[in-house]
Amino acid sequence: MLLLCEIFITEYCSICMKKSYQSIEGNSTNDMKQVIHRNLTHRFLLTGLLFLLTLSTSLLAQEGDPAKGKTLFNTNCAACHNLDRAMTGPALRHVEQRLADDQGLDREWLAAWIRNSAAMIKDGDAYAVKIYADYKNAAMTAFPQLSDQDISDILAYTAQEKAAPAADAGGGVVVDPAQQSGGISNELILGALAILFVLLGLGLIMVNRTLRRFAAANNVEIAEEAQRKSLWKAFVQNQFLMLVVAIFFLLSSAYFAYGYFMQLGVDQGYQPVQPIHFSHKIHAGDNKIDCKFCHSAARTSKTSGIPSLNVCMNCHKSIFEYNGETTAEYTKEFYDGEIKKLYDAVGWDDAEQEYTGETKPVKWIRVHNLPDFAYYNHSQHVTVAGIECQTCHGPVEEMEVLYQHAPLTMGWCVNCHRETNVKVKDNGYYEKIHEELSKKYGVEQLTAAQMGGLECGKCHY
Amino acid sequence: MSSNKKYWKSVEELNQDNGSMVEALKHKEFVQEIPVDEFLGDKDTLETSSTTRRDFLKYVGFSTAAASLAACEGPVKKAIPYVVQPDQIIPGVANYYATAIANGHDFASILVKTREGRPIKIENNDLATTNGSANARVNASVLDLYDSLRVGWPIKNGEDSSWVEFEEDTTAQLNALKNAGKEIVLLTQTFASPSTSKLISEFKEKYGNVRHVVYDAISESAAVEAYQNTYGERGLANYDFSKASTIVSVGADFLGDWQGGGFDTAYAKGRIPDHGKMSRHIQFESNMSLTGANADKRVPLTPSEQKVALAKIYGKVTGASVSGSLPAHIEEAVNGAASELLKAGSNAVLVSGIQDVNAQTVVFAINEALASKAFDPSTPIKTRQGDDKAVAKLVADMNAGTVGALIMSGVNPMYTLPNAADFEAGLANVDLSVAFSMKEDETSSLVQYIAAAPHYLEAWGDVEMKKGHYALAQPAIRPLFDTKQFQEALLMWNGNSSTYHDYIKDNWNTNILNGGSWNQALHDGVFVGAGAAVEDTADTEEVGTAIDASAAARALASASSNGFELTIYSKTGMGDGQQANNPWLQEFPDPLSRITWDNYLTISEADAQELGLALEASNFFVTSSHDATGGLNGKYANITANGVTVTAPVIIQPGQAKGTVGLSFGYGRTLGLKSEMQTGVNAYPLYANFNNVQDVTIEVAEGRHEFASVQLHNTLMGRGDIIKETSLEIFNTKDAKEWNPMPMVALDHKMTPVTDPSVDLWDEFDRSIGHHFNLSIDLNACTGCGACVIACHAENNVPVVGKEEIRRSRDMHWLRIDRYYSSEESFEGDNEKKDNIKGLGSSLSSFGEMESPSANPQVAFQPIMCQHCNHAPCETVCPVAATSHGRQGQNHMAYNRCVGTRYCANNCPYKVRRFNWFLYNDNDEFDYYMNDDLGRMVINPDVTVRSRGVMEKCSMCIQMTQKTVLDAKRDGREVKPNEFKTACSAACSSGAMVFGDINDKKSDIAALKDDKRAYHLLEHVGTKPNVVYQVKVRNTNEA
To answer: Taking Cα atoms as reference points, which of B893, B874, B864 lies closest to residue B775?
Structure first.
């Protein structure tokens, strides 16, 4: 649950706060520090601004602090509520205003509901019962720990107007033309260079011709061609040179043939198109979700496990749209469409906020394929050895589309086993073995190879 | 003193003039010639062919290039995760569930290993004190789940139907029958299930005129009846052989299926010499059974003589006078056995497999007279409840037309009834016939409704194995097909809407658990309670009164017979035949005959010769007993009893009593199984009156039968010291050097032990750090049951190759159990004697004497797998280093590196390497189980499925040792003592196989390795194996 909230926070931080609430949020302190170092005027201005802000907040004390409210909202409410969209619970933008207008209910009622809705339903409060029934008898978690001030803060947050989404899209679009123009300019430069070379070549030929003409005019004999022929003939007649060339030729072709055959069946860089465009960059990179949060089997099993769709839904029940950075190829619509694909596969009716029961298991395309005769165990490497996933899988957090980073050849495995020290610290299993083996080899650190990690039968059975 | 016996594996080896096959096998590793002539010999075809040599080479070149180009593109592999992953399942991690098998023949509490929701292996349930060990058939039962011929949905009159239709139709008809007052009969297997009994009594209440007939295909009815007469309850007396120091068995194959089986664990406990003591086992029997093979003293005699012998023992033990005559040597043996029983007193026990109420009554009387501690009549065994008379009456009633409905579950009477034709005729008179069956078998194909039944791994259930000893069965997989178990249908007919799971839970909470936790019982799979009174629902015929034991003994003593006596027995691999479509069991070599894919008539050598002589100049076992490829041949015989004739192939069984023959149940099935599996002959038609002993006449029949025997394959080239054995007396009194000598070699003209480093060709590696695995095999405790063979099959994806390939010596078993016969004295003297025969009189007497070794040989079983030699001969000859040694003692085999030169197999002194002649998986030429998606679900994902052209062999279950190591590493702890296991050691319920790390001094193996009984196979070769055997000790002390 905690992790889930973290995801929300990071998600929302990266999406909205950068724009409108930069000065208040924790992640902007860096910027502030830099500003402070730059010059004093800015500092004065900022202090003034902060002073003004505090003044204004103190004036609106009863009405709460929307910034604090946002934090509280994301921590406590966002699992079931969205500001503009009914989820497990109703949409909450202007909820206070709405209740006051439509139902004549005040903040006191709201506070009571937030702190213990079940009691109100039990007591038979008309609107409480209605809202409970409207949302499929989903009981709202009681929040008795929220103070009046907290509730005011949250309500202040909900009372804010919706930020214009255009800014996001605009930001995305701005990046693209730059990239595109960059591409064009590169081609232009190359084209210009090519033309230049052609012109230079033409120039040379013309100079040559002119010189010849001069030579002919001045009766200078040119004997170059005869010389050239003799050089070629000499070369052919020199058996030693021929031998050297032949050997060189054979060796280099053998080298290339060997290179060709050695890369057969090595799928390094294999980057298949997946049925759902899952971006590891957004999940592991932008949102910093730990690999093993979804690939939890890597800790205990031989396979890392492709997360089942219910794992996706832990977060995507609430995250129904993408609000991060976009490009021309990967637009917000594109990402939202991919989330829809997930809903379709898992059988989640987003409008009704319920599972339909109709599931279509996703047929992912396997990227990393070890042959059947090679046994590899993730937990051995991840849990026991404590190796980072990126060691073998590469910078997954930067991959928009996942590809095979390592060659996954036996030589590659063996090299690592030769070079990597076994993590023996604080592991009861290794205590005795480590002591005896280090005495035998006279070293403190043992490599996997020294522990028997190069034996055939350790991976092939 | 080391016994200097000569061991032999077959009659041919004993009588060396009888064919050069044995000689040929000694000189050749692969018996078959390479068939060069087949493709080069036909010159005409070669010359007239339009394809020239050049063309041929072009084709080869192009196709090779095309194939390699096509192979460059890797296939696109899909990975489909769960939509909602169950909490308990982590892909790649095995889950274990406790459940129980109760198929009417085998009853055992077991653990099921599942991977990603698929059961892939059966293991022993250590928590179960009753029937907690799985035999070969139970181990193989997991494959039955994935049988491609299973019935997937209900069938009505041969057409696909639905459960809704089934419910509507049958309920209506049952109600109509109820109103018409016609009888409804439930014909079922022995369920021994308290909840099913309760359901059936509710069914009886609802439908009134209901009869429940319990039918065991292989009947123990006489024993059940005797127990009922004597102790007033239906059941079988319980025996604990671990409490007996003297065991006398008269025709009881108690290591086999006698009275439900499951006695081997307790028996084996007493067979390991401990403080100079071990049990003494005397066996009187006609067929050579697994039990007889393990006996210290075995007396072959005919079934009628067994009855007299039993009566005489009764007379001796109780002092009653019993008449009756026996041949002198048997009389002597009987008297000896009786006096040994008396001497051991309450530490003795006598059991009998004679299917006769009198005999079983006498057994009770003898054990009570001895006050035997091993005999426990107070907790009767419930796993055989069948009543022969009730079954016979049912068939009569069906023919009389008084049966309105016949509902069958777990039975196949059309196959197993001796009077199947009567049953078929009767079935036509029944208004409603329903069969709960997994197959369209002999019976279910004749009924109106086939109710598709689930496999036991898909169903709920409970069993009361012994009184008060309960087991729970839970599903380990969601039903693969649209099936319904018998109990669910009963609930439906009873109008009970609860599930069978809820019903069992409710029943257990109220009647059995007595306040205990249901969840705990389900987790353990077993529960030992007070033994609540379960209503006996089986309707049995009139209950007899207790018979006076001395009267019974007198009746027994008058038993006699003319001609041959046939004893029909159940084979270790096939049981009653319900698992006949299981290729693992078909290919399982019989522990004694070592024959696969067949049953056969066993006969003594003397009788075979005699019958052959009486008929014509040839005999049963002619010199062409083996064909050129080493395959065993046999003649056919017509066996006639009560007007029924069955034709079966014949083999000579050493140890078969003269005047008797044997034939096993379980073969000759015709429906519901693949054509490959339709092997052998059906013995049930001879099983008249459910009596397994029949007077028969034997005649030679036409034709020659080809057996697939692994008996003569890979003989050990005449090298000695393979089996070491001694007697208990010598074991107790002499130094180990005398009976377990270390082979010596000459070094600088001094005799040096072969294990001495100075005589070694190789440098010794330091293996004292980390793990060093050893496997100990106790030849005393090994009963030859073969559970390990099947467990190895399941764990290591060993392919089934089929009868044809086995006949060509291409069996793939990684673990085989060699069976050696031995005689009391060396028979080399016999050969000498034979050469010196002069005159008729001399020849008659001398030949007579020479027969004796095969008349009653001693038997030893020796499981052999890769010995994981520290100085392995196979490793040094591999040209590509595909087989190499690990620091932990295992001899590794890298399949992907192997190019198939087979040098290693040639250089292996133990003949344990197996070559993949074909692609056995995904190949319809081998239509067993690896060629369909269903059958492949049983494959262990942690072990490579080998391809054509590579060598394979026992890996000492490196995948299991690696897993144990990894578990310890992940938990950050040392490996616990005895935590390491292999599939065979885990399956071994007799404690014969112990596996572990010898560097862990706390584990059992460390002590076993240095035991004074320990020796290595072919120690003098200097291979330094990591498999250690324990000298077999026979208790030959006559009391």
So the answer is: B864
Question: Given this model, what pLDDT does residue B57 score?
Answer: 86
Strands B375-381 and B403-409: unpaired
- Per-residue pLDDT at A38: 43
Looking up tokens 């196949």 gives B412
Instruction: Tell me whether B82 touches chain A (CB under 8 Å).
Output: yes
pLDDT at B194 over 70: yes
Nearest chain A CA: its distance from B86 CA (Å): 10
Q: Which two tokens stand for residue B458?
A: 């898909």
The secondary structure of residue B936, as a DSSP letter, is G
Rounded to whole angstroms, the Cα distance separating B620 from B610 reads: 9
Buried b (16+ CB within 10 A) or exposed e, B926-936: bbbbbbeeebb
The complex scores an ipTM of: 0.82
pTM: 0.82
Q: B565, exposed or middle or buried, with CB in 10 Å at 0-12, 13-18, 19+?
A: buried
End-to-end CA distance of chain B: 22
User: Do the chains contact at B884 and A305, CB–CB below 8 Å?
Assistant: no
A257 close contact with B: CB closer than 8 A: no
* Mean pLDDT value of segment B862-881: 93
Coil, helix or strand for B718?
coil
Is B222 within 8 Å of B365 (Cβ atoms)?
no
Residue B47 has pLDDT above 80, yes or no: no
Chain A residues 417-456 within an 8 A CB cutoff of chain B: 426-433, 436-437, 440, 451-452, 455-456
Question: What mean pLDDT do residues A437-449 have?
Answer: 84
Of the listed ranges A445-449, B141-145, B782-786, B881-885, the one predicted with least confidence: A445-449
Indicate the pairing of strand B564-569 with strand B660-664: parallel
Chain B residues with CB-CB distance to A361 below 8 A = 80-83
CA dist A47 → A44, A54, A117 (Å): 5, 10, 43
d(CA B372, CA B366) in angstroms, rounded, equals: 9
Nearest Cα of chain A lies from the Cα of B885 at a distance, in angstroms, of 8
Q: B809, B652, B716, B445: which is closest to B12 by C-alpha?
A: B652
Report chain B residues whose CB lies below 8 A from the CB of A301: 90-93
For A402-423, the pLDDT digits (tens) are 999 999 999 999 999 999 998 8
Contacts of B965 in chain A (CB under 8 A): 429
The DSSP letter of residue A279 is -
Q: Which residues from A are below 8 Å from B92, CB to CB?
A: 297, 301-303, 305, 378
Q: Are B894 and A267 inside 8 Å of each other by CB?
A: no
Contacts of A375 in chain B (CB under 8 A): 942, 959, 962
Of A456, A442, A377, the residue nearest A410 (C-alpha): A456
Output Rg (C-alpha) for chain B, integer angstroms. Answer: 29
CA neighbor of B630 nearest in space, from B37, B38, B13, B36: B13
pLDDT of residue A228: 59
**Around B815, how many Cα atoms within 13 Å sit in the side-chain half-sphere?**
31
In chain A, what's the furthest Cα-to-Cα distance? 121
Give yes or no for residue B986 having a pLDDT over 70: yes
> From CA B335, how far away is CA B803, in angstroms rounded?
46
The answer to whether B90 contacts chain A (CB < 8 Å) is yes
Q: Provide the token pair at B330.
A: 């048997």
**A 262-301 near B (Cβ less than 8 A):** 264-265, 267, 272, 297, 300-301
Q: Of the candidates B617, B914, B639, which has an alpha carbon nearest to the alpha carbon of residue B793?
A: B914
Distance linking the first and last C-alpha atoms of chain A: 41
Strand partners, B937: none
Q: Do A365 and B972 touch (CB under 8 A)?
A: no
